[in-house]
């Protein structure tokens, strides 16, 4: 039944994309973030719905009468350069076949990211897209929060199998990025029942992140929560929501969870932590030895044999920073960090120019919450590997679109013109004089 339902929804929506390509972006976001076909168990489970949607969206956009142009900013130009560099590192990768398989996933994601910037042309469509993303991921946050409460935190909250965030660690990081998006929608909502629903989703998503039993997820939530409170316009309200979430977690989480989280302080005794550190050294050594790094999927036994301090301690890298460093070298790592800095500065610009304007305050709120999401991503990313996750790059484009729709990107300046030469003073015998021409500003 689920297979039929998902298939009917997808193929039922596809015809509308030909008239309105932005509908394709909404459908793709739903498929990419909720992965509804992964909730089925039959023929729909492995159906390439997202790929089909992407093809239809691209075709509809190419044949539409809409103006086709990219928003070229320092961020989008750098992202394009980063994509080009990843293509180069894939060509020189240690494990060519595996690297090209991963590259095929990454470039498709980035293509849809750029298409989003080209197709979304109205603020209302941007707002709907944020709703689709928040509800798609919020499904797992609400479901996971209820699951954690009902089972007393005995089991780990995980994402849908076969996706970027299928594991408990990745699920926790995604939820840390999700909560600020829900908070943005909460700030914009006018109906009380919607506000209460979004507030409940925030609390339950926070509980689900803790219920993942991910130590990196705990750090991500702590960093995100502090910055969310700091950025909040209503600190008392956020304090109440956080207190409720903490109280629920304290009452349901078992002692085993506390024992596991306590191992953060004694990482030198934890085999998993030591394995990550060994992988980080491996990434640094590969980047130091090769300009292009090792390429996608380089963290495998032969790489450790040659570059690791402990050659036989093979472990996944579990860090967005060392993942990019090892796979794309110091140049790729520099682009990755610079991109984050530029996005942060752009968000500051939007906040600075829009926060005191009632008509544009929405953009300031959105930019602030994107910063909070990036704090959660950056903190959790120290110990979790999601360097190529769709949402990270989608948030960058969302910020660029917010800057565009709020007028922040409008750099049009009036071009000064040459003032005409002054006329000679009137002849004394003239009855009427003439005023000199003034300058045009």
SSE diagram, text form:
Blueprint: H1 2-17, H2 21-34, H3 49-63, H4 74-91, H5 96-119, H6 123-150, H7 168-188, H8 192-211, H9 215-231, H10 235-252, H11 255-262, H12 271-289, H13 301-307, H14 320-354, H15 361-380, H16 390-405
Helix pairs in contact: 1-2, 1-3, 2-3, 2-6, 4-5, 4-14, 5-16, 6-7, 6-8, 7-8, 7-9, 7-15, 8-10, 9-10, 9-15, 12-14, 14-15, 14-16, 15-16
Walk me through what this model shows.
This protein is mainly α. It has 2 domains: 1-67, no CATH class; 69-405, no CATH class. 67% of the residues lie in helices and 0% in strands. It has helices at residues 2-17, 21-34, 49-63, 74-91, 96-119, 123-150, 168-188, 192-211, 215-231, 235-252, 255-262, 271-289, 301-307, 320-354, 361-380, 390-405. Helix 14 (320-354) packs parallel to helix 16. The longest helix is centred in the C-terminal third of the chain and has 35 residues, at 320-354. The protein starts with a helix and ends in a 36-residue tail after the last helix. The model is unreliable at 412-423 and 427-441 (pLDDT under 50).
| Number of separate helices | 16
Tell how many strands the DSSP assignment holds.
0
Provide the domain count.
Answer: 2
What order do the helices and strands follow? HHHHHHHHHHHHHHHH
What is the mean predicted local confidence, pLDDT? 86
Shape summary: globular
Distance between the termini: 68 Å
Can you give the helix content as a percent range?
55-70%
Structural class: mainly alpha
Tell me the fraction of residues in β-strands, as a range.
under 5%
Radius of gyration: 26 Å
Let me know the largest β-sheet: none
Low-confidence stretches: 412-423, 427-441
